[in-house]
Amino acid sequence: MTLSLGAKKAIDIALFLFLMFMGAVSVFVTFAIVWVLLVDTIRFFTHPDGGGFPTSLIRFLTEKEWTPTFYNKQIGIWPLVNGTFLIAFISMIVAVPLGLLVAVYLSEYASWKVRETVKPWLDFLEAVPTVVYGYFALLFITPILQKFLEPLGITVEGMNALSPGIVIGVMILPYTASMIEDALKGVPQYLREASYALGASKLRTALLVVLPAAKSGVLSAYLLGFSRAIGETMVVAVAAGMYPQLTANPLEPIQTITGYIVQVALGDLPFDSFDYLSIFAAGFVLFLLTLILNSVAVYLKSKAVGY
């Protein structure tokens, strides 16, 4: 059955309107989320229990303790930011070298058959539920750390930053490795051939020619991976603890922004209370952090297009 020109045009218009509508819905939902987050954050900073604006904002940026649910309320966000970045940095220590090695192997060394065999198994790591990763960190990684470090006189707490940091590094490995591989594949073949023509080995070409040429894409991949590590929830909620503190010791319990949000959201605090509104202020800080990281990553990725 052959459609008439008018029918084809009507179908094209209908599809165009449908796609426009779905795009508009996506944009609307995004702005609605930001609006709700911003409104409740403003309510937190203008709440009498925090001293009202601008007192609460000054306390938020200058105090060094985070106890908004206690009778003696301290609302310095820095302990939560410290815990969030501590775990994210540990995860990147794991993901950066492993992601680079996996990406270089898949892009420069592996045959098509090997690549098609390895990548599904690598992607399988992303399919594992994050709560499973959390209990893996708590019940497997932490006991191993205690077994090897405590005989050396190093105390490892049951809840700590190191074990969830290691597990998150493994969890984001497929994401970073895949993005780095795409960046390496985007390097023109003539650069490799020119390097080979000068007598360089495959390894030397990969590390000194291909990798520098793809540095913008590689940095973008790591920033996006870091952003994902910052926003991880269940792993840190299960294995990192609920003790917000300013510390650089990864063997002590800490609390991240996402971990605090889970703790309060699952509690029985009154909906409009100062304690409950604190999760929106913490969430807004997390939103700003991820927005900055993602914006820089998108900029770097755009710089990687074209040679």
How many E-type strands?
Answer: 0
Q: What is the level-2 CATH architecture name of the largest domain? A: Orthogonal Bundle
* Mean model confidence by pLDDT: 89
Radius of gyration from CA coordinates: 24 Å
Strand content: under 5%
**What class, by secondary structure content?**
mainly alpha
What's the CATH topology name of the largest domain? MetI-like fold
- How many H/I helical runs? 13
Low-confidence stretches: none
CATH homologous superfamily descriptor of the largest domain = MetI-like
Total domain modules: 2
General shape: globular
Order of helices and strands: HHHHHHHHHHHHH
Q: Helicity level, as a percent range?
A: over 70%
Question: End-to-end distance, in Å?
Answer: 47 Å
CATH class of the largest domain: Mainly Alpha
What does the largest sheet look like? Answer: none
